[in-house]
Design brief:
Elements (H helix, E strand, L loop, with lengths): L4 E6 L4 H19 L3 E5 L11 H9 L4 E3 L11 H6 L17 E6 L2 E9 L10 H11 L6 E7 L3 H10 L6 E5 L9 E2 L5 E3 L6 E2 L8 H10 L12 E10 L6 E10 L3
Parallel strand pairs: 1-2, 2-3, 5-6, 6-7, 7-9
Antiparallel strand pairs: 1-11, 4-5, 8-9, 10-11, 11-12
Length: about 260
C-alpha cells in the first residue's frame, strides 16, 4: 500500500468552455499532483444543464475515475443508461426508484476508495435526508474501504458545514459543489475530514457563475425570467487536491487548485 493517496476533485464543469478547459488541462493536473483518484462534477457539462453520454465518455477517456452530479443530472434522458452502467453518480438521497446509484468504489495502487454523491435540501428539491442517508451508506461500505469522499451538492453553506462536522472523522473529505463560486475555507477538521464549502466551477471565467454576463445583467435589471445562456469566454479550472493516509482514511492536507486557460 502506498504511503500517501492523492485525490483530485474538480468542480462543476459548465458548458463547452468547461469541457474545453478540462480536456486541455486535466492531464497536466493529474501529472502535477500525481493524482491517484480523479473525481469531476459534470452535472452542468451539456450547455449548463445535465451531461450527455458522449461528454461523460470523454471525461472517462481523459483520466476521470468518477463523475458526480446534482439536481441537473436528470435533464438529459439519454444519460440514464450511463447512470446504471458507469461510475457516473446521481445524489444517493434521491428515492431508490430513481435511475442510477449514488456510490462508487474504485481501486488504484491497491487502495480502495468510495465516492459518495449527496444533495442538500435547503433551497433545493426536498429529497431524502443527506445526514441519515450518509450514515446508512457508511454502515454498508466494506471494511477495507478506508478512503471515503463525499461530493455534497448543496446551496447553503450552513448545510454543507453542518454535514461536514456531523461526519468529521467518518469520511476522508466532504467537498461542496453547486454554487460555482470557490470558497477560501478549505481545512482539515479535528477528526481528520477535509472540508471546503464550495470548490468552484470549471467553466468560463468572465461570466456570472457560467452564464453570459450581459444577459445575466439584463435579467437582474428587468426581473424577466430569461433563460440563461452559457458564456463563451475563456476557461478556468477550479478544484481541490486532498492528500489522504490510505491506512486510516484520514485527510492529511487539502489545497485549492486554480488554472486559468483562456480557451
Amino acid at each position: 500500500m502506498s504511503k500517501d493517496f492523492t485525490a483530485l476533485f474538480l468542480g462543476d464543469v459548465v458548458g463547452q468552455p468547461g469541457c474545453r478547459a478540462l480536456f486541455i488541462g486535466l492531464k497536466d493536473l493529474i501529472r502535477k499532483h500525481k493524482a491517484d483518484l480523479v473525481i469531476i462534477n459534470g452535472e452542468n457539462a451539456a450547455d449548463g444543464f445535465g451531461i450527455t453520454p458522449e461528454i461523460a465518455d470523454s471525461f472517462f477517456a481523459n483520466g476521470t475515475h468518477v463523475i458526480t452530479s446534482g439536481n441537473h443530472i436528470w435533464q438529459k434522458r439519454d444519460i440514464y443508461h450511463h447512470l446504471e452502467s458507469q461510475n457516473l453518480l446521481r445524489p444517493a438521497n434521491y428515492p431508490s426508484r430513481a435511475p442510477g446509484k449514488g456510490v462508487a468504489i474504485v481501486e488504484n495502487k491497491g487502495v480502495k476508495a468510495a465516492v459518495i454523491n449527496l444533495q442538500g435540501r435547503e433551497e433545493l428539491p426536498s429529497i431524502d435526508c443527506p445526514f441519515q442517508c450518509s450514515k446508512d451508506i457508511l454502515k454498508k461500505l466494506p471494511g477495507d474501504v478506508k478512503i471515503k469522499i463525499i461530493d455534497f451538492h448543496a446551496e447553503r453553506p450552513t448545510e454543507k458545514e453542518a454535514l461536514a462536522l456531523f461526519l468529521d472523522g467518518k469520511v476522508s473529505a466532504l467537498l461542496g459543489t453547486h454554487t460555482h463560486v470557490p470558497t477560501s475555507d478549505e481545512r482539515v477538521l479535528p477528526g481528520g475530514t477535509a472540508f471546503i464549502t464550495d470548490v468552484g466551477m470549471t467553466g468560463p471565467q468572465d461570466s456570472v457563475i457560467g452564464a453570459e454576463p450581459g444577459q445575466a445583467i439584463h435579467r437582474s435589471l428587468t426581473q424577466m425570467p430569461l433563460k440563461m445562456e452559457i458564456s463563451e469566454n475563456g476557461g478556468i479550472i477550479n478544484g481541490v487536491v486532498i492528500n489522504i493516509d490510505p491506512a486510516t482514511g484520514r485527510a492529511l492536507k487539502i489545497k485549492r487548485v486554480k488554472t486559468i486557460l483562456g480557451v
